[in-house]
């Protein structure tokens, strides 16, 4: 057994106070996102964990890349026939989370996922490199395959088929937009007295702001 009880760190880089936050969580998310980006930390700033409830009843989390965010929601792309796609089809309640270690910050978003329009999916797919496009076509994401060689050989066949041709978006691949219902911002503080501010969507399209105990 590995004893990790002595792994400790004091969080002292910033603070999150009510007199310095906007009424809208998307504005605060935008501020934090670009502050982390400007800080120049390692890794991908837009990497986020997507958690779903699987068809087997268990929650499952995986890291994907956020591709766009606005007042309407948070967009990512995937194979609709993948494990996560099937889970979202059965239960669109999802959770997104970002952990930006360099700034000692975390954001947790509860929301409802739905497919983006085909136009949005087409436009993003068209912007991808050809290799990524072919990868989306050849990979039956989450399905059991016999070997790595099986996947690579299928890719070679697809590359030959589409040589010199435009590559269309497969219908089982596209975007999801997550409409936020609740957004929690966590800022690490000293002595484990962290700042936690939660925004909850209201029926009049405003946001209720609450401080949570650490």
From TrEMBL:
GO molecular function: FMN binding; pyridoxamine phosphate oxidase activity
One Pfam family this sequence matches: PNPOx_N
Gene Ontology process terms (BP): pyridoxine biosynthetic process
Domain Pyridoxine 5'-phosphate oxidase dimerisation C-terminal stretches: 173-213
Root EC class: oxidoreductase
Annotated residues for binding of substrate: 8-11, 67, 124, 128, 132, 192-194
Pathway connected to this protein: Cofactor metabolism; pyridoxal 5'-phosphate salvage; pyridoxal 5'-phosphate from pyridoxine 5'-phosphate: step 1/1; Cofactor metabolism; pyridoxal 5'-phosphate salvage; pyridoxal 5'-phosphate from pyridoxamine 5'-phosphate: step 1/1
Domain Pyridoxamine 5'-phosphate oxidase N-terminal: 44-158
CC cofactor: FMN
Keyword annotations of the record: Flavoprotein, FMN, Oxidoreductase, Pyridoxine biosynthesis
EC nos: 1.4.3.5
Catalytic reaction annotation: pyridoxamine 5'-phosphate + O2 + H2O = pyridoxal 5'-phosphate + H2O2 + NH4(+); pyridoxine 5'-phosphate + O2 = pyridoxal 5'-phosphate + H2O2
Cofactor remark from the record: Binds 1 FMN per subunit.
Positions of transmembrane segments: none
Function comment: Catalyzes the oxidation of either pyridoxine 5'-phosphate (PNP) or pyridoxamine 5'-phosphate (PMP) into pyridoxal 5'-phosphate (PLP).
Protein name: Pyridoxine/pyridoxamine 5'-phosphate oxidase
Designated gene of the protein: pdxH
């Amino acid at each position: 057994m590995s004893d990790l009880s002595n792994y400790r760190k004091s969080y002292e880089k910033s603070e999150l106070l009510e007199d310095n936050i906007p009424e809208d969580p998307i504005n605060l998310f935008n501020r934090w996102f670009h502050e982390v980006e400007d800080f120049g930390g390692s890794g991908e700033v837009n990497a986020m964990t997507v958690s779903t409830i699987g068809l087997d009843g268990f929650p499952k989390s995986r890291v994907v890349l956020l591709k766009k965010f606005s007042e309407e929601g948070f967009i990512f792309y995937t194979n609709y026939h993948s494990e996560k796609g099937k889970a979202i089809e059965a239960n669109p309640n999802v959770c997104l989370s970002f952990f930006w270690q360099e700034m000692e910050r975390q954001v947790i978003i509860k929301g409802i996922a739905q497919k983006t329009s085909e136009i949005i999916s087409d436009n993003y797919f068209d912007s991808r490199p050809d290799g990524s496009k072919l990868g989306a076509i050849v990979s039956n994401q989450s399905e059991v395959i016999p070997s790595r060689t099986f996947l690579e050989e299928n890719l070679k066949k697809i590359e030959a088929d589409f040589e010199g041709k435009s590559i269309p978006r497969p219908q089982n691949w596209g975007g999801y937009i997550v409409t936020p219902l609740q957004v929690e911002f966590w800022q690490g503080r000293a002595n484990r007295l962290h700042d936690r501010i939660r925004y909850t969507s209201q029926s009049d399209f405003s946001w209720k702001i609450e401080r949570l105990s650490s």
